[in-house]
Amino acid sequence: MTFVELLEVASMPVIQVLLISALGAFMATSYFNNLLSPDFRKSLNKVVFILFTPSLVFASFAKSVSLEDMKSWWFMPVNVGLTFLIGGILGWILVKLLRPNLKVKGLIIASCSSGNLGNLPIVIIPAICDQKGGPFGAHDVCRSNALSYASFSMALGGIFIWTYTLQTLRSSSLRFKELEASEIINSPNKDLDGNVETPLLKGKDNKNTSTKVPPLSYIGDSESQIIYDKVESNVLKNEKQSFMHRMIEVLKHLLQELMSPPAIATFFGFLFGAVSWLRNLIIGDNAPFKVIQDTLQLLGNGTIPCITLLLGGNLTQGLKSSSVKPLTLISIIITRFFVLPFIGLFIVKAAANFGLLPVDPLFQYTLVMQYAMPPAMNISTMAQLFDVGNEECSVILLWTYSASAIALTAWSTFLLWLLS
Description:
By secondary structure, this protein is mainly alpha-helical. It has a single domain (3-182, 270-419), classed as Na+/H+ antiporter like fold, CATH 1.20.1530. Helices cover 75% and strands 4% of the residues. It has a three-stranded antiparallel β-sheet with strand order 1-2-3.
């Protein structure tokens, strides 16, 4: 195939995503009477998460995945882990070089390490198989395998995001809030009696517990040190108490991710694909429960348009102004779409040369594209959860997803040429 033909095959899925995302963004504005309002997006996202996505995952796994396939896919969990590890290191280097506001530090590391390994691969990778002249074989076989690879990628990405990324943003938000608290302590407010209110602890009912001390100009250095020692000891006590709480929260989110509908659908899809007698119950023209598989496929067909519309609607939040500097945005884009994919390409090609990967070139294409995906949309959910950097996160996602249209097309074209 010529370069122009490869560019056409690679660009069509990205253009489809752009068109549907633009429609979703337009539907979230007043011109469409806010049809995709924040409340509606939350409800639709629940439907996609609970019903559409599990149906798509189970139907694709049960139909195309066998026990031999599971054994040959062992490198994908390793590859996903490497995307988070290497991306996290690159994000940490950016933080050291740029020295951004503490509110943005965790977002930079999360944006560099946590790619969209679920929604976009499910949209883009199977769409490659729909283009005429694709290098990955017959349309039906290619699309079935692509859905299986993308579904497995989504399940793995969710586990890493709700453990590694969650902890990264949590620790960053706690440090930012501690900094805010220390600034309040260092700049106390006087009450009507001329005393100083020094916040010590914040209770569960969100009411500050404060102690009143004379203004620092009227007390000696030793007395002032005693006051601040008490404040510091209370902060350290809270940190020790919150460590176990944070560990419990991480384990709880991991368990929730493992028990989420897409993860459960992945498990049962693997089970029905690996056990032949279970597979024969729903797969095949003579299967007694073929209607179940057909119903799940019908429900799964609603996944791609819904998640793409939601993507466009959610990105409209990034049009708000924020304190993210252009240099920070450019650095994240270069790291996410150029440096990390080049490293990933080297890793995948090395693994292929050592015979660690299946022969299928579509599997290698999927592995490299995992490094080139824009930041995960769940980062925005976590920023809202910890109430730190909401607007900054929206701006980062808006610009990185805008840049991904060019980056994904370029990488997809290059990989099609390399693997064809």
